[in-house]
Specification:
Shape: globular
Bound molecules: nicotinamide-adenine-dinucleotide
Structural class: alpha/beta
Mean pLDDT: 97
Helix content: 40-55%
Largest sheet: 7 strands, mixed
Number of helices: 15
Amino acid sequence: MAQKTNPFQTMLEQLDAAAQIAGLDKNDYITLRYPERELTVNFPVKMDDGSTQVFTGYRVQHSTVRGPAKGGIRFHPDVDMDEVRALAAWMTFKCAVVDIPYGGAKGGVTVDPTNLSVSDKERITRGYTAKIADFIGPEKDIPATDVNTTQQMMGWIMDTYSTLKGVYSPGVVTSKPVEAGGSIGRKEATGRGVFITTRELAKKLGMDLKKSTVVVQGFGNVGSNAAMYLHEAGAKIIAVSDVSGGLYCEDGLDIPAMLDYVAKHPRHIIEGYKQDGIKATDNHGILTCKTDFLVLAALENQITEEVAKEVQAKVVIEGANGPTTFGGDKILEERGVFVCPDILTNAGGVTVSYFEWVQNLQHLAWDLETVNNNLERIMVKAFNEVYTVAEDKKIPMRMAAYIVALQRLVAVQKIRGIFL
Ligand code: NAD
């Protein structure tokens, strides 16, 4: 069996490569090679069936140089410290790329929530929150949704934290339901940001979205919203996959019908969706399908060196975090496949999380137009900054995104200096 790629190692390889291109001295960025703080918690949960189970969770604060730590919480059976560390670091660089005043963090619980009842999920969420409550806070570290965590769960985190602290604290977590202090537009924000980035890139590459085909891996929050906006812009979504498998249709999938189907499915999956001319495919088929754009919106380590040799997409859009390994990236570059990197492409989510937090701290509620206009402004600016560095230095967009982020991080680190 192939050895699992350590995503934190991938992050370090990307960071060192970008720092070298930028001509940085190792002393200037060495702190970014280490997470500031890491917490592992084991907590008991009384399950619906009467048993007591002990779950393991993590929270990593990679950097607080540019602001409080910020990053989502993942519920997945493969969650481990290396994954959480990598995801926390990517948050640091992502927040710096879009220039919002946050550091980077991530959390997770090693659990498969697919077949758990709502009450079991609630107790796991509350148990985890209670154990990390002293570690997080509106001015310290602000979680949000990620893979398999929902807006409802963010509501439970807010309630647990507020109850334990005796202070109503909506700013402790973002991506909450709108009724509980969430921001309008947050749920769709990552997918919207993926769309904005793809649209801007298409313009630069001289590709017409209306004449383009798109394949989407992962049809959860990020993938389904990205598919919806790309479909609305006239692109033809020819294949989509999720944990249950993939579906291909040469004439284009009916994305609104699929969204409706998934919303009504008890497990929110595409399995069983029917449309004329549709064919089943698998993960490999999705990743190697002939298409203009391949949107990755599932998990990390999808485009490995082996897969990269077979990718037929012209452009890879990283909606997920870390979907391409360092080796996979090199092969895509050699083969002329354009990669739009995660730390830019999926930054729309944390950007609107930032808006949500700002609204919470000020006890304000923005309207959708204000949220979307500000998201558009920030994403387009960040895209252009990264694209310009890539063009000027003739380097891949990922290296350019890291360089934009590193310039901001190193500047603040120098001003702050080292305490003792
Ligand atoms: P989600 O749980 O809503 O959706 C994940 C999707 O991936 C589901 O459709 C699932 O079935 C599918 N999936 C899982 N394993 C798969 C596999 N092996 N092959 C194909 N599909 C598979 O999660 P999400 O919030 O949409 O997150 C997806 C990615 O985007 C993650 O990498 C996450 O870190 C990243 N991300 C999310 C946000 C956000 O705001 N939610 C923000 C930035 C980045």
